[in-house]
Amino acid sequence: MRLFVGIPLPSPVIEALDSVQRSLRGAGDGLRWSSPETWHITLQFLGECSAETSECVIERLAEIRSPRVPVALKDTGIFDRAGVFWAGVEVSTELRQLGKQVAAAIGQCGFTAEDRPYHPHVTLARAKGDDRVSVLRKLQGRARQDFEFPPFIATEFLLYESFLGPGGTRHEVRRRFPLR
Fold this sequence. Notes:
The chain is of the alpha+beta class. It contains four helices and ten strands, in the order βαββαβββαβαβββ. It has a single domain, classed as Cyclic Phosphodiesterase, Chain: A (Alpha-Beta Complex), CATH 3.90.1140.
């Protein structure tokens, strides 16, 4: 199973992101737009895991004690090499701390935390092919930087299973973990 840990988005944020997507979509734009059902803020990507390893992850994540996390989305941007257009997330002290706790928990199950800086975001579109950088830069040129997203308080984080398919990715919640 392919797993990751993330924060779900509330309806008002999904509606705001959907509005951004609708304002930017164009026929034949060379982009694969992600669906609202897949939107989340990733804390840690685990990748392929055995059933035994996933049980370890669930047990360790259940031990996390963290306050609720204030979340604010801001701006949009692109990851050239990955071919991703995203809405950014401000890194609050609480979000950074939760991310560290999740990394420490999964570390107990044999996972190594990523060594690159944490850049939380919501993936809105992907571009493929040799011209993906130019496609994304055109999109970024059309994107306003004054999009407004409602802030929210995350009350839980989730363990998701990801299923890849020809119609795109589908996520299922495997376990919910409350924030207090």
